[in-house]
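Suppose a classmate hands you a notebook page containing two proteins, each written out with its sequence and a corresponding row of structure tokens. How would you begin to make sense of it? This section walks through that situation. The first entry is reproduced here exactly as it would appear on such a page.
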Amino acid sequence: MSLNIFWFLPTHGDGHYLGTSRGARAVDHGYLQQVAQAADRLGYGGVLIPTGRSCEDSWLVAASLIPVTQKLKFLVALRPGIISPTVAARQAATLDRLSNGRALFNLVTGGDPDELAGDGLRLSHAERYEASVEFTRIWRRVLEGENVDYEGKHIQVKGAKLLYPPVQRPRPPLYFGGSSEAAQDLAAEQVELYLTWGEPLEAVAEKIASVREKAARQGRTLRFGIRLHVIVRETSEEAWQAAERLISHLDDDTIQRAQASLARYDSVGQQRMAALHQGDRNRLEVAPNLWAGVGLVRSGAGTALVGDAATVAERINEYAALGIDTFVLSGYPHLEESYRVAELLFPLLDVAPQQTPENLAPVVAAGEMISSDILPTAVAAQ
């Protein structure tokens, strides 16, 4: 099985060390363009663009990078409860059309109650997933060309439709990651690819089996992916030294404050990340070559594969053997590490080549719209 290898755009900041401004660098459009173009040239299939109040807006970043890349796909966040599903469908279709089918979407329900409240979303964890299910049902159907009436507990629409469809058929793929029972149920019903954060093999296998079984009960099959940091060097010793260097400016007080902040999250996935290390910098190798140091101060994906290239490739193939075909990787700083990962790891892996998306619908000339509902028929030049 060929592996789809994605990289990460650090729209929340970048640098050489975690938890300090020392060794940090400015992340402006020029830098994001450098990272995206490096990923494009090196053969990564796409880039994940994060979301949240600490990040630049993922949609605007993706749109700005379409003209300066060629084959790279953009995995952009959908935020149920923050935006209408029909508006999100129009935005998704536009991004897909402008990129000629290079748009992918990542459903993010959110896990930080303070941030969600700041965006006006005050639903509980269970209610957010109820709303996410309703959002996704509408979003999918509208993008697939239906005229949608929907009366849900949280969302109601009447006559929702899309006049300018996406070019990917039947619509751009939907990715999603979540560890709770409600999240797995949503994935089984709604998405094409289920993402997990990097946990030990046994935990990942258990999660995949659960989601696969839930999907099978609905007559569906899913693909699977994993989100990991990578610290790969020519020798294992160099890799572990680089891992220690990454957290070398963290003191116990900084770790404790970060963990206290992350503890308020109601995300099951975040709780699982924290349980791997329990805030203890002396117990960070939580499985062979799986290092939880990033999660000491960072929310979300908190583990890294650490080692020489052959060892890291072996660990990646162990995850692939569970059924994972997509690996969303990152490393600090993201520009230099994009090269290091591609140069050291790609020759040892069966990396899927960059491809133009299949089943693209042509963009048809239609002229100017003459009302809110009617598109004029294209007329050949006389």
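The notebook's second entry, a different protein, reads as follows.
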Amino acid sequence: MQGAILNVNGIITDLDRLQFAAWQKVAMYEYGMGLPGKLAKDFKGLSREEALNKVLARFNAGDADTDRQELLAEQDKFYGQVLADLGEDDLVPGIKKLIIALYDHYVKLAINYPAGHADEITKQLKLDEFVDVAGTGTYQDLVKQLDVPATGCVALVTNQEDLQAANDTRLVTIGVGDADQLQGANYQVSQVGDLRYQMLEKVWEDTHENK
């Protein structure tokens, strides 16, 4: 195993709550009222475009393309502000230990966060010394930036979309979370705290032995 790619959201920290906080600020600024906290669960796991659709629907707002881009830019600005509160206490339990173990075994590490701000998040969480690539591209892009073969990498994923993309890139996949959503992963665990370096190494070895 030469490289590992970890999703930021759900593997390293919970960014859904910060994305929702930024949407609450957009709602207050644009429509004069916030989004109730009870709606946070409905925004969990959504892309920014999908979240915007929910905001527009709630306030019966127009859907002009120019308005969408302005609102997305505004939300991104607010998101950058709330990220300032992110710190080591927000790390998912067990992930720092795993990252250090990967680093100690000379495994190159990329973190993947399509919504942007990956460098900022890495620094806020004090992981920058362990991370080789903080990117927003495809798995293929991240593998290229790590400068390791795809077959030498594992990917830790939390959703079906990322699992499919990682499988298509020929990465060894570890699904973390809902087993039904992560069928097709080379290995599954229910939570980040179950992950160990030795486990990742064995799954990677076994996967290639069986091919």
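A careful reader of the second entry would note: Residues 3-13+88-209 form a domain with the Rossmann fold fold (CATH 3.40.50.1000).
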